[in-house]
Amino acid sequence: MLSDQITISEAYRIDVTVKYLINSCSNLPNNGGHYCVNAFDLYVNQSDQFIADPALYPDPLSNSVAYKKIAEINQTTDQITSETISVLAKENRAILAFHNYGACSTLFSVKVTYNVCPDETLRRRLVSLPRTVAPANDSDPTRVKGECNKEAVQVYGSLYVHCESNGEWNTTGLEGRCICKEDMQNNEGICEGKLSWTLQTFLPSARSFQYLKLTEYIHTLHTYILLSR
Q1: SS3 content of the chain, % helix, strand, coil (to 5)
Q2: Which CATH number goes with the domain that contains 156?
Q3: Rounded-to-integer distance, Cα 58 and Cα 44, Å
Q4: R_g (Cα) of the chain, nearest Å
Q5: Where a domain ends, among 113, 131, 148?
Q6: pTM of the prediction?
């Protein structure tokens, strides 16, 4: 069984997740017969050539050198099982081939994915990290330089972090940070203008103050006249 040709594009590694069921030969009448096995194989063809017509895909039976065996899938739990096999991406396109040579099995689904470290803002440090394709393995993590957010400036240290193969950012080596420009403050990772408070905000103007004093005087005079009657 062959998959469609898959465009790998920017990925350094693809993860093939297979959901399947293998009925153990020992649970079948006569142990499943002479040719019963408890496994099937996954092969992959990688190429830079785009093949529009599936009829022209390399035939794994007559052109076995075009495919490389990646894994033997053999978990005979008699239950639906999910297994992920990692494949290093060497070309831009891939075709998956499954070879069943005697297993009593059911293949439910095949999902092909790759990991990406997402674009992210480190709010406290005001550092933005760009979307980065994850490396094939953690022995060679991808070193990425962050950038100060809008209206922020770098104050010290480098802004380098690492993108791990699982698509997670490793910021333990981040030395530097950014701060908001003058008269601005950090609000959840966004530099915004500070609120300007002055004594005038809380006290009435001189005109208002004089008006209040005059009103108070008139009120007092009116009270005095009433008491004098």
Answers
A1: 15, 40, 40
A2: 2.60.40.1770
A3: 11
A4: 35
A5: 113
A6: 0.74
